[in-house]
Structures are given as C-alpha cells and as structure tokens.
Amino acid sequence: MTFAYGVGFSLLMMTCYSLLHEFAHDLLFKNNTANYVGGAILALTFIFPITAFKNMHQGHHLRNRTDLEMFDLYYPSDNKLFKVLCWYAILLGLWWIMIAVLTIIAIILPSI
User: Fold this and answer.
1) 88 to each of 1, 52, 83, how far by Cα in Å?
2) Is the residue at 111 inside a domain?
3) 61 belongs to a structural domain
4) How far apart are CA 112 and CA 20, in angstroms?
5) I need a labelling partner for 80 at 20 to 30 A (CA). Which of 5, 12, 26, 96 fits?
6) Are residues 50 and 82 in the same domain?
7) Are 47 and 79 members of one domain?
8) What is the pLDDT of residues 81-100, one digit of tens each?
9) Residue 39 — pLDDT band, cuts 50, 70, 90?
C-alpha cells in the first residue's frame, strides 16, 4: 500500500509542478491575474511563494546551460564530492526543503 501512496504522491506532485511551471510563464490562462492567483494557490503545495518561484525560474532560464548552473557535470578543477552530494540532494528532494527553510530565514533576516 505504501508503494501505491508513493506513486500517487509522485504523480500529484509532478502534475502540480508542471502546472506551476506554466503559471510561472503566464501561459496557463490568457489573463495574467488568473495566472498569478492560480500560481499562488498551487505554489502553496510546495510551501513556496509564487513571486519567488517566478524570479528563481527566470534566473534559471538566464543561466541554463552555463557554468553557473552546471550541477550534473564537473570540470577537473571542481570538487567532485560536492557535485555528487548536490546532485543527490536534488534527486532526494532536499532542494525543496532547503527552499522552504531559506524562505523562512529570508523573512526573519531579510538583510542576508
């Protein structure tokens, strides 16, 4: 039964993330307000403000396929252990926990 819950949870979260991605690009509805409100509601699933998601996602598109965002490959001068740990943190979902924690820290200590 646990496996079935895991499959259901995965399908639900992947669907939510895919829709959130479309909201972030203002593509789901023709009305930008509807995209914002829908995205804000859906972002609650990930405990992440839609505005922060949109800003981070736009930054991702600016840095995509550059050295700044090359987390799955490494140069000989890179710390391979650090790169491997980052990759597993992403695969295990620790990235989302880190985002939630850093959002709370940013609210408490905005000067950081």
Assistant:
1) 26, 24, 9
2) yes
3) no
4) 27
5) 96
6) no
7) no
8) 988 888 888 888 888 788 88
9) very high
Total domains in the chain come to 2
Q: How far apart are CA 78 and CA 87, in angstroms?
A: 14
Average pLDDT of 24-44?
92
64 lies in some domain:
no
Computed on alpha carbons and rounded to an integer, the radius of gyration of the chain in Å comes to: 16
Q: What is the DSSP string of 6-19?
A: HHHHHHHHHHHHHH
Please state the pTM of the whole predicted model: 0.63
Contact between residue 49 and residue 39 where contact means Cβ atoms under 8 Å apart: no
Domain encompassing residue 90:
70-112
- The pLDDT of residue 18: 92
Q: Do residues 17 and 43 both lie within one domain?
A: yes
Per-residue pLDDT band for 43 (boundaries 50, 70, 90) equals very high
Identify which of 83, 61, 60 has the alpha carbon closest to the alpha carbon of residue 71.
83
**Exposure letters 64-103 (e unless 16+ CB within 10 A, then b):** eeeeeeeeeeeeeeeeeeebeebeeeeeeeeeeeebeeee
